[in-house]
Amino acid sequence: MRITDVGGYALSSPIEPVQTRSFYGGRRRLLKRDVVLVVVETAAGEIGFAPAGASSSAMREYFEGDSQATFADLVEGEVADALEGETLDEVTDAHDLIDATDLPERVKTEAVSAVDVALYDLKGKRQGAPIHELLCAEYDTEPTTELPMYASAGMYMEPAGYADQARIIDDLGFFGYKYRPGIGPDGDVETIDRLAEAVTETEVMVDAHTWWKLDDDVYDAATRAEIVEHAGDRDVYWVEEPVEPDDYDGYRDLAGRGVKLAGGESEESPAGLIELAETDAVGFLQGDVRHHRGYTGCAAAIEHCRGRDVEFVPHNFGTWLGLVANAHLVAAAPEVRLLEYPVFEDDPALDHPEDPGMYPFELAFDIIEETVDVDDGQLTVPDGPGLGVTVDMDVIEEYPPTEGAWTEFIYD
């Protein structure tokens, strides 16, 4: 296919009024959520889409004032220059062209990720097949199109608030409930205890990134170990990112304390995912087609996990477009079964009298015209060609980009 146009559109979904969440030693302000929509067009008039833009943990400089418009500009600039006018025989031809630019390595990875997904969308549309069928042919697997999901929700609440939210998630039938602790060691332990009593079928996952963003005198190594061991005693399913992403020795120290560890979303490359898995310290490896060189890049990590005591579970903390993109991977990849579902306020796919959402993120839903099919905590993967959903291009005008970071951490 000959590429004629590559576009990157920065979008911002404001959080109004601004929300402030207190954690132990500081506050977190939630200002907006940013998204980059990448659009790739061929000479035949075919259009492929992809969600893009770096995650907050993978691209921490965004906390320091940069906005995702910076990445959109790079897509429209250096990335477009590398691809427009080129004829691609394979998806990986685009990887080679982007890798040959002078962009920083991390930006190359983000750009390759988006273009890879968009080209698979184009390929599926051209063949009249959903992406998961294309991937099944590559993996030599049969598709699984009803996917269990864990709900990614709780953020810096009192222990009773986490428990109330978890009960709603349990009612909705999700496989798991993931929350963000950080209200202090005693509060974190109490939350684990309350959650163990609150849910009946739903597993509990702890996303502990706040621990290493605070000073060591709050969550030092001994304190982290005590909380992790307590999580194991209360049958927590996993503890995610309990140490800084590159602290492999820290992962090793916490492994074997009664609960499996999860990590990988902050790794800068597919090779980094495999390096983390090779520590034998994590039971769950969290790659992401949006950040680890697309479907192509995630394949190496998935293959590494096969037959080993580590399960590939995609990270996903963005829009429904990102959800669908990762869902096609889960539907096809061998020994991959679980998907992350971020829960935002007023989610039209969830039917419950109480709202378990973290904060408003209307663009998450509005970016596609369809409502994703969620029933009893499971997602039915779209079966239309390519991604199988219709991107609503009106969001480009309805959600103009605003400058600055999407969130701020303020430390006492």
TrEMBL record:
Gene3D superfamilies given for it? Answer: Enolase-like C-terminal domain (3.20.20.120), Enolase-like, N-terminal domain (3.30.390.10)
Q: Which InterPro entries match?
A: DgoD-like (IPR034593), Enolase-like_C_sf (IPR036849), Enolase-like_N (IPR029017), Enolase_C-like (IPR029065), Mandelate_racemase_C (IPR013342), Mandelate_racemase_N_dom (IPR013341)
What superkingdom does the record give? Archaea
Q: In which pathway does it act?
A: Carbohydrate acid metabolism; D-glucarate degradation; 2,5-dioxopentanoate from D-glucarate: step 1/2
Which residue range or ranges hold the Mandelate racemase/muconate lactonizing enzyme C-terminal domain? 159-261
Q: What is its EC number?
A: 4.2.1.40
Q: Catalyses which reaction?
A: D-glucarate = 5-dehydro-4-deoxy-D-glucarate + H2O
- One Pfam annotation, family name? MR_MLE_N
Q: Which GO terms describe its molecular function?
A: glucarate dehydratase activity
Task: Indicate what this protein is called per its UniProt record.
Answer: glucarate dehydratase
Organism whose genome encodes this protein: Halopenitus persicus
